[in-house]
């Protein structure tokens, strides 16, 4: 499977698995394949949290209703994952911060442990994927 086919399959999977989160134009996934599992795990936890909190509110009139998260943009910026969205609550904000921190130590190419590398463009890479960079840092 080509890189483009893998990307298309991931995008289709996420849009079908989390249709409420990807209901508006969000620009796709502008992040390396190594971070896709982090993104998928984050989206799953966000939707489970929203569904559970809203069920508690409806069934037992407990807590507050949580506004559905709608993804605006998911991208790599300065070697880190950025997850922009509308909706949610404080717990979801914490989930997003944790996922972004995890990506900061995860190779964006393969998902192995990585660190920030700079050659003018900052990327988070494992030692193996950093080998081909002009400057290893």
Report on this model:
- This protein has one domain (3-106).
- Helix content is 42%, strand content 22%.
- It is an alpha+beta fold.
- It has helices at 3-17, 36-60, 90-103, 127-130, and strands spanning 29-30, 67-77, 80-88, 115-118, 122-125.
- It is elongated and about 60 Å long.
- The strands form two sheets. Strands 1-2-3 form a three-stranded mixed sheet.
- The longest helix is centred in the middle third of the chain and has 25 residues, at 36-60.
- It has four helices and five strands.
List the helices and strands and how they pair.
Elements: H1 3-17, E1 29-30, H2 36-60, E2 67-77, E3 80-88, H3 90-103, E4 115-118, E5 122-125, H4 127-130
Parallel strand pairs: 1-2
Antiparallel strand pairs: 2-3, 4-5
- Count of discrete alpha- or pi-helical segments spanning 4 or more residues: 4
How much helix is in the residues? 40-55%
Shape summary: elongated
Give the C-alpha Rg: 17 Å
How large is the share of residues in beta strands? 15-25%
Number of domains: 1
Uncertain segments: none
Structural class: alpha+beta
Distance between the termini: 32 Å
Major beta sheet summary:
3 strands, mixed
Number of strands: 5
Order of helices and strands: HEHEEHEEH
- Order the strands across the largest sheet as they lie in space: 1-2-3
Instruction: Look at the structure and give the mean pLDDT.
Output: 93
């Amino acid at each position: 499977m080509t890189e483009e086919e893998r990307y298309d399959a991931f995008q289709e999977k996420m849009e079908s698995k989390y249709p409420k989160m990807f209901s508006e134009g969000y620009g796709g996934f502008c992040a390396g394949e190594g971070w896709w599992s982090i993104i998928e795990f984050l989206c799953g936890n966000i939707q489970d949290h929203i569904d559970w909190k809203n069920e508690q509110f409806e069934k037992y009139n407990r807590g507050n209703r949580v506004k559905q998260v709608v993804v605006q943009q998911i991208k790599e910026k300065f070697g880190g994952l950025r997850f922009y969205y509308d909706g949610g609550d404080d717990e979801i904000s914490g989930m997003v911060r944790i996922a972004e921190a995890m990506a900061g130590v995860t190779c964006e190419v393969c998902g192995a442990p990585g660190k920030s590398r700079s050659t003018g463009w900052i990327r988070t890479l494992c030692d193996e994927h950093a080998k081909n960079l002009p400057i290893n840092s």
